[in-house]
UniProtKB/TrEMBL annotation:
GO MF, one example: nucleic acid binding
The organism's place on the tree of life at top rank: Eukaryota
Listed CDD domains: Rnase_HI_RT_non_LTR (cd09276)
Official protein name in the record: RNase H type-1 domain-containing protein
Pfam family, one: RNase_H
All residue ranges annotated as the RNase H type-1 domain in the record: 25-149
């Protein structure tokens, strides 16, 4: 079995993106993801846009003992699994999240959480980019994912 050290793997980076510019590109898959914990209930929401149109949305309930971090990360994992299912693996996939903590965990060399390792494994076969989207500023995709979460 050939295993490379983590520092030799593909580096995951992200950018701050307040706009919906990429939503208008017909060929891009654009996922907005969010996680929340309200009144002891934890869930996540995922919205998929292509060519500026919403084509799929998911609302997923998690175990009540799940943290917001885990909900945010699970939303990203589900979005990527959906991207694998829909995509020919060459089209650009853009993941928009308001979770800076998940983005920082994805960026790190050492992975504390199995869920982050799972995401990194899925990413190995995708043409992807991550974008941090500021929460609660009226960005439609982000607000829609927040509602579903």
């Amino acid at each position: 079995m050939n295993i490379s050290p983590p520092w030799q793997g593909r580096r995951i980076s992200w950018n701050i993106d307040y706009s919906n510019v990429k939503m208008m590109n017909e060929s891009n898959y654009n996922f907005y993801t969010d996680g929340s914990r309200i009144e002891g209930k934890t869930g996540c929401g995922i919205v998929l846009f292509r060519g500026g149109e919403e084509i799929k949305s998911l609302s997923i309930r998690l175990n009540d003992d799940s943290s917001v971090f885990m909900a945010e990360a699970y939303a990203i994992k589900c979005a990527l699994m959906e991207a694998q299912r829909l995509n020919n693996l060459t089209l650009p996939i853009h993941i928009f999240t308001d979770s800076m903590s998940v983005l920082k965990s994805l960026e790190a060399v050492n992975d504390r959480f199995q869920l982050i390792r799972d995401i990194k494994t899925i990413l190995q076969n995708l043409n992807f980019s991550f974008h941090w989207a500021k929460a609660h500023v009226g960005t439609y995709g982000n607000e829609r994912a927040d509602f579903l979460a």
